[in-house]
Write a structure and sequence with these properties.
Oligomer: single chain
Number of helices: 1
Strand content: over 45%
Structural class: mainly beta
Number of strands: 6
Strand order of the largest sheet: 1-4-5-6-3-2
Length: 90
């Protein structure tokens, strides 16, 4: 089960997303948990976006994500469990 809420307004005259990652930081905060900070920019298709996503243990990267975008810039905060990544590598 997951809860996913997303609302966005995009520029209909821009045909594809062209954003670039400005900042990305993903430290482990415990043996099985990590937090990700990502900031992207320069995507003129993106006018406004707000999102929330909670994923349970049956999904990859189970945890919580919060997204916010405004005028071509986008920020994501993701707190998630990393154990499935290790299981996929085996």
């Amino acid at each position: 089960m997951s809860i996913h809420f997303n609302f966005d307004i995009t520029n209909p005259f821009v045909k594809k997303h062209c954003g670039k990652t400005i900042f990305f930081f993903e430290p482990k905060v415990s043996k099985n948990k990590a937090i990700c900070f990502q900031f992207d920019g320069f995507d003129w298709k993106q006018i406004f976006e707000i999102g929330f996503w909670w994923r349970d243990k049956t999904m990859g990267h189970w945890g919580m994500s919060i997204e916010f975008g405004l005028l071509g810039f986008w920020f994501n905060l993701d707190f998630y469990d990393i154990r499935h990544v290790e299981e996929d590598d085996e």
